[in-house]
Amino acid sequence: MSEQKYTLTINDQELTFVITVENFNYFVGGVNQKNKLSMAHNFCMQTVVENDKDALKALLKLPSVSIQIAEALIEAYVPQVNIMVKPVPTTASN
After folding, report:
1. Of 3, 34, 45, 85, which sits 20 to 30 A from 28 (CA to CA)?
2. DSSP 38-86
3. Rounded to two decimals, what is the model's pTM?
4. Tens of pLDDT along 4-39?
């Protein structure tokens, strides 16, 4: 999975974002409770296409919009996989 392009419609405006593995890893690896807003803001600004930056800047002035956009992009970017966990029986020697 390399570069993925997404168009989001936000308040009747279409904005296009391009996400790379590097963008994704940097965001997920750096986000925590103390910097969630700034990391989401940076993720949005780093991934939006140049022509849509001004429109995005205006939207990011609204409360928590950066987090909502980042969550929507991450949800679209991350592939859905089926993971099952099976317990491993233990024996007395383990």
Report:
1. 85
2. HHHHHHHHHHB-GGGHHHHHHHTTSTTHHHHHHHHHHHHHSPP------
3. 0.82
4. 999 999 999 999 999 999 999 999 998 887 889 999
Token pair of 27, please?
A: 């965001």
Rounded Cα–Cα distance for residues 48 and 22 (Å) = 14
**What domains can you pick out in the chain, each with its CATH number?**
4-77 (3.30.2220.10)
Instruction: Report whether 31 contacts 74 (CB < 8 A).
Output: no
Q: Which among 23, 4, 73 has a CA at the least distance from the CA of 65? A: 73
User: How far, CA to CA in Å, does 22 sit from each of 1, 28, 32, 37, 41?
Assistant: 11, 10, 18, 19, 16
